[in-house]
Amino acid sequence: MTELDLRPQVQSLLAETKEKIKIPIIVEATDAKVDYVRHDQAEHFLRGGKMIITLKNNQAADFLVTHELLHIQQFSENLPQLQFNLTSGDLDLDNKIMAAGLELYDTVMHFQVYAQQRKLGVVGQSLAEMFFQGLLATLKPEQKTADQWMVLRTLSILDGLVFFQGDEQVTAKLQKLYPQSTQAAQQMYQQLTTKKMIGPLAIRRGIVKLFQEFDQALTIWQLPAMQLNQFLTITPVLSSRQLKLQLRQLFALYHVDFKENLHNTPAYLGVYRQDDQNSFVLPTPTVEKPDEFFKAIYRLTVADFMKKYNFVYQKR
Q1: Can you tell me the distance from the alpha carbon of 207 to that of 273, in angstroms, rounded to the nearest whole number?
Q2: What is the DSSP string of 82-99?
Q3: Residue 57 in 3-state DSSP?
Q4: How far apart are CA 249 and CA 300, in angstroms?
Q5: Phi first, then psi: what are they for 271, rounded to 5°?
Q6: 66 CB-near residues (< 8 Å, 6+ apart)
Q7: What pLDDT sits at residue 2?
Q8: Can you tell me the distance from the alpha carbon of 17 to that of 25, in angstroms, rounded to the nearest whole number?
Q9: Beta partners for 255?
Q10: What is the pTM of this model?
Q11: Does the pLDDT value for residue 1 go beyond 60?
């Protein structure tokens, strides 16, 4: 296993993250060095009671390690969570939707991550060039008509705009190679940056709006919409006042064609009335009178309902 020579500020972040999550963190690296950087060159996962960070590009070790550490820290912060509670019955389709949703969710999280990495001093001119080269290494130039690569192009370019903070010169270069994808990504970026996303509620709004914008872009390109707002769960952000309201006042429950993936039964979505976003998923109730079951649920306070079914939410 290759020994890494991480900068002092990266070592400090590593120690801080260990203390925050209360479990050991092991960084594993190989001798691989690549002259471009992409997010798939690092990942983190639990193994044997330890958090493992694996690297596939030692050329950008400081950037990749801090990136993973900051994402790990976000797990313990008061931020809306992305959950995968449904299945279409087509595993390949499920994986495509989940992959796109995770990329969009992470892109919103990257506003905070990239800013913190800049403060740590791991994003310089050389790293920025490696990041741009990573985009070019990933994406095929656009054709005149929309193709299956539009999803990956748009996801990658949007994240690139977040990394480069909407830099006009970078955007112009991307526009030449990927005009349709860049235009769509620019519109999404503008929506995300109209107001600063400070706090869990604003971040959730950004994620929900981004899901909507992405599906609209697919429709314009005459590609199948992914129904991201319905298929993917984004945990709600609730105030103390909202927790005291009856469930029916904030959420609507309705049946969908997707199945709940834990019990493999027809699913009932809990949709936040203000934005139509899937906020929790109920399996089909195993009761003789389902109508009475749902009436009783609607009468519960939001706080009691969330506690009864162990649903995750964030506080405003």
Answers
A1: 16
A2: EE--EE-S-HHHHHHHHH
A3: coil
A4: 10
A5: -105, 125
A6: 10, 13, 116, 117, 120, 122
A7: 64
A8: 8
A9: 268
A10: 0.94
A11: no
